[in-house]
Each structure stands twice: as C-alpha cells, then as structure tokens.
Prior knowledge:
This protein has helices spanning 20-33, 68-88, 102-113, 127-133, 135-142; strands spanning 8-12, 36-43, 51-53, 56-58, 95-99, 117-122, 146-151. By secondary structure, it is an alpha/beta fold.
Amino acid sequence: MSSNGYTHILVGVDFAPESEPVLERALMMRDRFHARLSLVNVVDYVAPATEYAGGAFVAEPILPDDGRLERELLDLAQKEIDALGERLSVQAQDRIIEAGPAARGIQHVARDIGADLIIVGVHERNWLGRLLGSTPQSLLKHEVCDVLAVRLDGEEAE
C-alpha cells in the first residue's frame, strides 16, 4: 500500500448473484483510491478419477477423465469473467482464471500481480465454517497483503 492508499486491488469472484456486495465494495475501493482493479476466479476442480468416500480417497472413475470437463469449466469461467470485466470496466489483462484451491490460487495471483488489497466474500454461516474453512482465514494466515472480507450471509453484525 502506498502512502495514498491502495494501488492494486484483487477481487475474488464466483459469479453468484449474492456476491454482488463484494463487487460493490471493490468498485467503491477502486474509486476511492484510484486503484487498478483485477478480478480472479478460481476453478476448484477435483479430477473425476478421485472420489472421496468414507474418509479416504478411492480411485474409481465416476466420469471420463480426458480433461474435457476441466477445459469446459475453465472456458465457462473465462466467458463469465470477461462479461463481468466488461460490466465493471476491468481491462482484459486484469481478468484472471486459476485452477486449484481458492485461497492458494488467490494468493498466487496476488503475489504475481503485486496486489496490495484482496477483497473476497465470506459465505460461511456457522461458527465452525468461519473458524476453519474460510478462504479469508487462509489468506490472512499467509500474509500476502491486506484482506477485506465482505460478509454475504445477511446476518447482522454480532
């Protein structure tokens, strides 16, 4: 972050209508700090040859594993992020698709582009999810840069 505020903001997007508050906050921060805005969507794809059953991974194919499904998911994500980028006036080079676990993908992109603020939504509604499973928690643990977690569950602040 510069002395004038944030210069490059990275927003984790999932294209869900209920995530609109994340985008609103990102636009507000972009305008407030005259910052560059980048979008990232992480396709968290598990190969169909791997099935989780009863506490162990079982190597029984449930779908053909020729890479087509993953390619289709990535292509669909690219179309979605391009449409969103057009709507938000985000340059094509600042629309990024990653594959893998969400927090790890966002961290890598933030480091690669030199982001000084990451904005993500928090979907977890129960205390255990907030404590253990959230992408924002994981991002904070790795201290890439500042993180703004926008609450999406509609609950009032406690």
